[in-house]
Give the backbone structure.
Amino acid sequence: MPLSEHEQKLLEQLEKQLHEDDPKFANSMGSDPGRSWSTRHVVIGVLCALAGVFLLLVGVTLQNIFVGVLGFVVMGGGVYFATMRSSRGRPGSKAGAGKGGKPRSSFMSSLEERWDERRRGES
């Protein structure tokens, strides 16, 4: 079931707040909106990985350890490059980070008020 527009906005606000409050944790969770998958990285990485597999097979066929190890290294580098994320942030993302002080606190206070109301309603 898809989220409603209001729920999507709340989720976006919570994500922004998480990035402002604890950027290290947010980055470890991998939900940074400023980092995205790059098609170019994926294509180049997959091509390198395939070239690495080819070199590995050639090394095994020729019984040449150096070519096999080189193929393995190229294959690993290709996989690493394909899974890298580009860090192209949005143009105003750094400038707007410091402006969220007051709205964030009012947002949190409204959430706390809602939570208290729900708890009072359950009792």
